[in-house]
Amino acid sequence: xxxxxxxxxxxxxxxxxxxxxxxxxxxxxxxxxxxxxxxxxxxxxxxxxxxxxxxxxxxxxxxxxxxxxxxxxxxxxxxxxxxxxxxxxxxxxxxxxxxxxxxxxxxxxxxxxx
Length: 114
Known about the structure:
The protein starts with a helix and ends with a helix. It contains 7 helices and no strands. The radius of gyration is 14 Å and the shape is globular. By secondary structure, it is mostly helical. The protein has one domain (2-112). It has helices at residues 2-17, 21-26, 31-49, 53-68, 71-78, 82-86, 92-112. α1 runs antiparallel to α3 (31-49).
């Protein structure tokens, strides 16, 4: 369980402390900022946990897909969370769902890969 806690810490460091304005503002529209952010994020998780190359690659790909696409917004629409995504909760509703999916990805890697 300690490794999972460290992975979650790596998530926070990679997604918030290491993400620049340039990455945050452009990752949805341009490949390079999203790829760099995803690599830093996955690298941060792997750095904190000591996980190897395969978890790094899987986390990088999952993070890239999630951050480069409208997966979060589409998921929230599918789940009937349109007001949670755009209403008075905005942008926090989308941030919460985004982070929950990132943590779920980490848990899946921890549970089934490492």
